[in-house]
Amino acid sequence: MLLLAGDVGGTKTSLGLFSTEAGPRRPLRTATYASGDYPSLEAVARQFLSDTDADVSCASFGVAGPVVAGSSRITNLPWLVEADHLGASLGAGEVSLLNDLQAIAHAIPWLDSRDLYPLNEGQPDPTGAVAILAPGTGLGAAFITTDGLHSAVHASEGGHADFAPSNPLEVDLVRFLQSRHGHVSCERVCSGRGIPNIYAFFKDTGRHEEPQWLADRLAEASDPTPVIAAAALEDGSRCPICVATLDAFVGILGSAAGNLALTVLATGGVYLGGGIPRRILTALERPEFLRAFGSKGRMSPLLARVPVHVITNPDVALIGAACYGLQRTRVSHGRENPANV
Predict the structure, then answer these.
(1) What does the alpha-carbon distance between residue 139 and residue 260 come to, in Å, rounded to a whole number?
(2) Is the pLDDT of residue 19 over 80?
(3) Neighbours of 199 (CB within 10 A)
(4) CATH at residue 38
(5) Which residues, listed in sequence order, are joined to residue 308 by a DSSP beta bridge?
(6) Exposed, middle or buried by CB within 10 Å (0-12, 13-18, 19+), for 43?
(7) Beta bridge partners of 96
(8) 3-class DSSP state for residue 162?
(9) Residue of 12, 171, 246, 273 with fewest CB within 10 Å of its CB?
(10) What pLDDT does 1 receive?
């Protein structure tokens, strides 16, 4: 039996063919498509199946948006994804939709040292909850709970909760963004879309000047975030406004990760997913990230014991969608107890 699994994001959609025999870590075929080039997920999936000349019996997609009753509007795309419609369009008997952070959470048990970069080894509690925070195009969040025997994955839209400033600079940042956008969510500053907002704050308030060479690069770029990050990290030519932007982002990410860890009591660990953390590892290794993560007053000693890892495997959400889909397949065919899902 073949499973079509997908990681559906605002920027790109990654699809793969998986079998119950090979498992979720060994896809038979994968491909990545620019999401904005297609009118719907159905169109992307049909393209993939045509390219691979494959017939699938079931499908599982992790999507960047809330899933309610088998339907999801992708947060940063004009796509409405409906499981029933997808199944009929693709000829797949069963189609599962789950939030992309739920997909990442399902992959956590399958990850090993090759997939993870430790920022804080901590003292993991095997019965404690696990939190996942993923800044990519947007900001995703999820968590895992366990009773010691069984685990349960929970979706969250916590990335859209109010941004909580933790120092005077961030207070000024909130005021700046409120004047432009009204509501300031955590995603507004802690994501690929958020980094240009922080940059605009430093530039437009006169805190830092924008050099002409950087202005030229940004004018030519379709996405300013990689330009800003690269200019902040380049040895010998680190640009002050970009360094300030990335430093502020790292502090905001650390504080948000600490908040999520407290909210779900993530003594089992915190995992940073999404495309940004693995690309700015050198910045996350500096003391500022863990300082912001752990600066929670009386709860600081608790957070000092929480392990924190960056997920460096870029295919983690696809692996997780495959894990979920293959698990559903095993259950539906009576090869596994549904209570263990």
Answers:
(1) 12
(2) yes
(3) 27
(4) 3.30.420.40
(5) 120, 270
(6) middle
(7) 60
(8) strand
(9) 171
(10) 81
Domains identified in the chain, total number: 2
Other beta carbons within 10 angstroms of residue 315's beta carbon come to 18
Domain of residue 291: give its range: 160-311
Residues 93 and 232 in one domain: no
In contact, 159 and 141? CB cutoff 8 Å: yes
Q: 336 in a domain, yes or no?
A: yes
Residues 6+ positions from 98 with CB-CB distance below 8 Å? 60, 61, 62, 63, 67, 106, 155, 321, 324
194 & 322 share domain: no
Q: Are residues 254 and 227 part of one domain?
A: yes
- Clarify whether residues 299 and 333 are in a common domain: no
Find the CATH number of the domain harbouring 198.
3.40.367.20
Mapping DSSP to helix (H, G, I), strand (E, B) and coil, where does residue 296 land? coil
Q: Which residue has the tokens 């719907």?
A: 40
Do 55 and 175 lie in a common domain?
no
Note the pLDDT tens digit of each residue in 42-91.
999 999 999 999 889 899 999 988 899 999 999 888 999 999 999 998 88
Strand 71-73's sheet: what is its strand order?
A: 67-68, 71-73, 80-82
Distance CA 142, CA 99 (A): 9
* 140 domain-assigned: no
Give the DSSP per-residue string, 251-278.
HHHHHHHHHHHHHHT-TTEEEE-SHHHH
Q: Is residue 43 included in any domain, yes or no?
A: yes
Find the radius of gyration of the CA atoms of the chain: 20
pTM to 2 decimals? 0.91
Cβ-based neighbours of 204, under 8 Å, separated by 6 or more: 176
Q: Is the residue at 220 inside a domain?
A: yes
